Amino acid sequence: MSNHPLNSAFERVNRADDHLSQLKGAIADFERAYHDAVIVEFEPDPPYQIKYTAPLDFPHPFHRIGILVGEVCYNLRAALDYLIYEMARLNSGSIQNGTQFPIEKTPQKFRGRVPTFLKGINAIHITSIERYQPYNGCRWTEILADISNPDKHRRITESVYGGFISNGSGGITPFGTPPVRSVRCAKRPDGIEVDMQLVTSMPIQIPLENPQRWVAVEDTLHQLKADVAMLLMSFNPEFK
After folding, report:
1. Other CB atoms closer than 10 Å to residue 59's CB: what's the count?
2. Largest Cα–Cα distance of the chain, in whole Å?
3. Element containing residue 83 per DSSP (H, E)
4. Counting Cβ atoms within 10 Å, is residue 104 exposed (0-12), middle (13-18) or buried (19+)?
5. How far apart are the C-alpha atoms of 75 and 156, rounded to whole Å?
6. How far is CA 140 from CA 144, 195, 208, 220, in A?
7. Which of 30, 88, 89, 227 supports an S-S bond with 140, CB 3.0-4.6 Å?
8. Who's near 234: CB < 8 A, 6+ residues apart?
9. Of 171, 164, 234, residue with least CA distance to 202
10. Would the CA dihedral through 196, 201, 203, 204 be positive or negative?
């Protein structure tokens, strides 16, 4: 398989994975620093309730995270475009210029893209590609476009961080992503030392446009990478 036509597409997925690793490291570094900056105190009187002050002005690595999100999505979309390029060459027997993987929200717009984006691709494969359009219920391609289009054309992807809850007994948060915890030893006003646990209330999130909402950046990008890889694998047998 060393000269397989989809090797370049899979290499783009691998490159997206490299950026995901960098993103994970950047988020972990930020969360550790944020944990350390939280001020934990006790109420002065029994039962000495815990209170904490989150560093609201703590510097958020907005641009670093946003650029890495954009690079992940760029490589995933490039992998899809490489697939279309190779399919057009396979079906037509020659190189077709200007091809790319369409992501459209209406059948009319998709059909309008066929003569250019899918030039040289046969009707059977066009039907296969159409199944991955948002108007046919393929949510992941719509999410990929929602994240990558603003990054390509308007701005670096935004991100937000949810802050903390404080818990002295090891409670967990109600979110799907495993919470990030740190333990801090603190002395109550009565002189007793206790271990206090700080737990993130939500992961770093990025916005989607349709519908407008925020999603966990790491979980979302990992799923998109898996979805692109699965799509490539589904077309792999066509290149015998």
Report:
1. 10
2. 82
3. helix 62-92
4. buried
5. 16
6. 6, 42, 12, 9
7. 227
8. none
9. 164
10. negative
pLDDT digits (tens, 9 = 90+) for 37-82: 777 778 889 888 877 776 667 777 778 888 999 999 999 999 999 9
**Whole-angstrom distance, CA of residue 177 vs CA of residue 168:** 21
* C-alpha span between 166 and 116 (Å, rounded): 56
Task: Tell me the percentage of the chain whose pLDDT exceeds 70.
Answer: 82
Q: Taking all residues of the chain, what is their mean pLDDT, rounded to a whole number?
A: 84
Q: What is the pLDDT of residue 200?
A: 57
Q: What is the identity of the amino acid at 197? A: Q
Give pLDDT, residue 64. 87
Q: Look-up: residue for tokens 């801090």?
A: 184
For the chain, which residues make up each domain, given as ranges?
Answer: 7-238
pLDDT bin (cut points 50, 70, 90) of residue 152 is low
Tokens standing for residue 94: 């020659």
DSSP class per residue in 3-43 = T-TTHHHHHHHHHHHHHHHHHHHHHHHHHHHHHHH-EEEE-
Compute CA distances 50 → 8, 40, 44, 72, whole Å. Answer: 54, 7, 10, 40
CA terminus-to-terminus distance, the chain: 10
